[in-house]
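User: Predict the structure for this protein chain, please.
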Amino acid sequence: MLLLLVAGCNRIFGLEETQPFDAPSPRPDAVGCSGKMFVGPEILTEFDVVPGRAEFDPSESADRQELWFSSSEPASAELDLSWSGKLATGSWGPSTFASFNLPNVLDADPALTDDGLRLVFVSNRSGGAHAWEVTRAAIGQPFGVAALLRGVDAYTFSGLDLTLDGRTLYWSAGDGELHVAHRATVNDPFVAEMVGSELRVIATNAAYVSISPDERELFYNHPGEFPLFRRVRVDTTAAFDPTEEVVYASGGDSEISADGQRLYFVDSFEVKLARRDCP
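Assistant: Here is the predicted structure, written as structure tokens:
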């Protein structure tokens, strides 16, 4: 847990040396929001929403009215998911623990669909680090009982991200390899992309990942390291170009907003927010 508190909650799931992956397309000249870099960042001083606890993995809902995150007490073996609602002042209000939290369990890396009715996260509640999903009938209602994410329940996760429509899942395993899976509808099981009998690898050395709304930008850390990097790709079928840009020299557990204009991340126990304008 010391590593967790220093480097961010996803560090708990273990990391190993990465391996080569399938060759990417030539590096693109990114367009739209993917061609803009972030400025700032600012410290979200109001975000110490759980006194005495450290917050990680901030994830903003598409309507910008909820901010989900993981929090932990120092030296605790428990990591809980919580959320805060937007106040009339524009700041984040008091936090509420998720209804599906369990004692002595590590829950991390929440990701919401754009309608706010589904949330996936990484948890060791089954004994290993796997992806789980919860659903709710309407915004403002509590989520139901967590279930293993169907179709990818056999794989180990160190971090994940979900597209806004809930139909494409990106995840990195303990070796820093980035994989992708798809489902026809949100009610169907995921099917992972494969190359022969092996999971397709679309990036290496990528941990604690966040994918931009157009799925052409990848924000990530190297396994066990602090710089926050960015890679891009030509389109959603290509592997990410290996060329790396340093976004910030320190920081991790990044999450890009649904409109691509805000980047949340954690640095030295502080939640920070960087912004950019999109055409």
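The domain at 2-18+32-272 is CATH 2.115.10.20 (Tachylectin-2; Chain A).
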